[in-house]
């Protein structure tokens, strides 16, 4: 599999979002709106990563 700098960058952003989601979710009163936004962005990144990994 080819790991382009763009793909590595997306994977890194995805991991960062995962950490932010876990951190927000661990709060006594998580911000539901913020969590939803973070999860949508994480999903968008995941889909883009998967597209980049597919053979052309």
Quick structural summary:
By secondary structure, the protein is mainly alpha-helical. Helix content is 79%, strand content 0%. 4% of the residues are buried.
Describe the structure.
There is one protein chain. The protein has helices spanning 5-26, 32-53. The chain has one domain (5-53). The protein is mainly alpha-helical and 56 residues long. Helices cover 79% and strands 0% of the residues.
The major pleated sheet works out as:
none
- Could you tell me the mean pLDDT? 93
Number of alpha- plus pi-helical segments: 2
What low-confidence regions span 5 or more consecutive residues with pLDDT below 50? none
Query: How much strand content do the residues show?
Result: under 5%
Number of strands: 0
Q: Indicate the structural class.
A: mainly alpha
End-to-end C-alpha gap: 12 Å
- How many individual domains? 1
* 3D shape: elongated
The radius of gyration computed from the alpha-carbon positions, rounded to a whole number of angstroms, is: 13 Å
Order of helical and strand elements: HH
Question: What share of the residues lie within helices?
Answer: over 70%
Pick out its properties.
56 residues, mainly alpha
Question: Strands, helices and their partners?
Answer:
Layout: H1 5-26, H2 32-53
